[in-house]
Amino acid sequence: MEASFKAFDKQAKAQQKLLEQAHEDRERLTRELPKATSALYKRISSRIRDGVAVAEARNGACTACYMALRPQIMSQVRRGDEVITCDNCNRILYYAPNRGGAAGGSVVLLRSVRSEMLIDRRRSDMKTAPEERMSDCAPPEFFVDRGGIL
Fold it and tell me: By CB distance 3.0 to 4.6 Å, which of 44, 47, 76, 86 could disulfide with 53?
């Protein structure tokens, strides 16, 4: 039991040393930022719980509060010309391009295959009679007159 306590203390000291190193790195990087950006970062990190002042903008949403971002905001974050904050949680937003090229490529491929399938289906539908095409749209009871409302 004594040996496990010593191992735990040793591990806790190593973790504490890593934490102190991370704090020193954060302070050094904060000093290198422009004054306005540094002040904004310090204000946000002191005001927000857990001191996390930045959040990734991914899939059109803030990953800290999960609120959808307006397309214009998402575009500005992608450009990276200025510091953009989330309208909901006020964290500084950053954009990390998708590093998984295969996943992004497969989504594009899936979309193109799906659109080709839709186009092919529309072409084949145009060759069929209009009555047959309408049968795919809605059940017949949908078109029944219900007191003057179609």
Answer: 44
